[in-house]
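Appendix C: a fully annotated inverse folding record. The material below is reproduced so that readers can follow the format used throughout the book. The structure is listed first as tokens, followed by the designed sequence.
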């Protein structure tokens, strides 16, 4: 007979295993700091007066919550306005909003690929994609990270075995800051006719002439069938969206996705904040260029101390440490100096690739990074 004690004991055992391996996670409040290199608010818009004003106006117009799920009465003019703005920015005809980027991915991967379909996904796709694929009906296979030759092999091998093949990847990978050659994927799509799903969560703001994402930077946005995005990173809010080529994707999810149907819709202030943030980001060319310059500087300094490579140039920079204890120790050393960085451990990243995740935002100046470089240089020297 099951008892609370038995259940608690089982949970404790699993938690203790995590503690033993230095992998236990717990919530903590941010400490006072002078430099935050851990957040995804790449343009610091969470505190931008126009974004705050837009949120305040939305609260005054609509109240603090949307009050209902979207098919009842939760879909409000502020949501419709945001959607129009997204479609115009992303140059896609149809789209919809979700309560988070995580839920957007779950909805797509659970409901769109059917039982006669195959999904080919990069090995390191975000957990939301993985969870969506796991709960969906389609078979899925993962190709080695960024390895498009392997992707092509799988496309050739399986092209006659399924009704539809989907290819899923992030553009900028959240924990690695690297990205696939999108032109290459577009060429494969032309040859093998798959449905392309691209998660642009971390590329928004940084890439593209108006911050639209990497698909726009690489001029392949027209070939992508489903672009997934989040309002929660450069757009300084919360919520997710998809923009798509075919209206049926939207109608289908509105009709069959429980994630969309049965949850109170995102708060008006969130929608309004994101809409204001898009307008700022679209016109932030100077800031974007300055941010890229800071990133370039930091990346080239890392190369000098043997901790970087020239291959990628996004604002997310992983410093692979390898051991969990050393990763936590470096994070804490930086924290003592008032610098926040992410310490990313398994299972978020593969075993043995524990890392500091540094994300550069538009407020960071080259000088601000010298202390980080000093700590890393010393660690590298001691490690030999
Ligand atoms: C690649 C990727 N997709 C989706 C998400 C989920 O987005 P959200 O934070 O809006 O749930 C994240 C967030 O970490 C992400 O990194």
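Designed amino acids, in order:
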């Amino acid at each position: 007979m099951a008892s609370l004690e038995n259940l608690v004991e089982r949970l404790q055992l699993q938690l203790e295993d995590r503690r033993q391996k230095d992998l236990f996670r717990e919530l903590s409040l941010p400490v006072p700091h002078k430099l935050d290199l851990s957040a995804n608010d790449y343009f610091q818009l969470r505190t931008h007066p126009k974004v705050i004003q837009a949120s305040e106006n939305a609260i005054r117009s609509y109240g603090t919550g949307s009050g209902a799920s979207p098919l009842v009465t939760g879909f409000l003019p502020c949501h419709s306005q945001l959607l129009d703005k997204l479609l115009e920015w992303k140059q896609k005809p149809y789209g919809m909003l979700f309560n988070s980027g995580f839920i957007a991915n779950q909805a797509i991967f659970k409901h769109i690929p059917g039982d006669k379909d195959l999904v080919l996904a990069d090995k390191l796709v975000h957990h939301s994609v993985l969870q969506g694929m796991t709960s969906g009906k389609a078979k899925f296979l993962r190709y080695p990270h960024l390895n498009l030759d392997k992707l092509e092999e799988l496309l050739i091998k399986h092209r006659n075995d399924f009704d539809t093949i989907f290819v899923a990847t992030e553009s900028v990978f959240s924990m690695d800051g690297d990205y696939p050659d999108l032109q290459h994927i577009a060429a494969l799509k032309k040859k093998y006719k798959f449905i392309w799903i691209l998660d642009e969560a971390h590329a928004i703001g940084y890439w593209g002439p108006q911050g639209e994402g990497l698909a726009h930077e690489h001029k392949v946005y027209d070939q992508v069938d489903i672009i997934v995005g989040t309002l929660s990173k450069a757009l300084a809010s919360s919520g997710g969206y998809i923009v798509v080529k075919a209206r049926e994707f939207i109608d289908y999810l509105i009709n069959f996705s429980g994630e969309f149907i049965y949850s109170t819709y995102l708060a008006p202030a969130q929608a309004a904040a994101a809409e204001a943030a898009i307008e700022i980001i679209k016109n932030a060319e100077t800031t974007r260029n300055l941010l890229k310059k800071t990133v370039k500087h930091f990346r080239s300094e890392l190369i000098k101390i043997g901790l970087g490579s020239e291959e990628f140039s996004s604002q997310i920079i992983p410093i692979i440490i390898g051991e969990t204890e050393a990763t936590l120790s470096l994070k804490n050393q930086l924290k003592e100096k008032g610098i926040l960085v992410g310490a990313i451990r398994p299972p978020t990243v593969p075993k043995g690739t524990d890392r500091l995740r540094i994300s550069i935002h538009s407020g960071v100046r080259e000088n601000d990074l010298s202390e980080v470089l000093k700590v890393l240089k010393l660690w590298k020297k001691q490690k030999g």
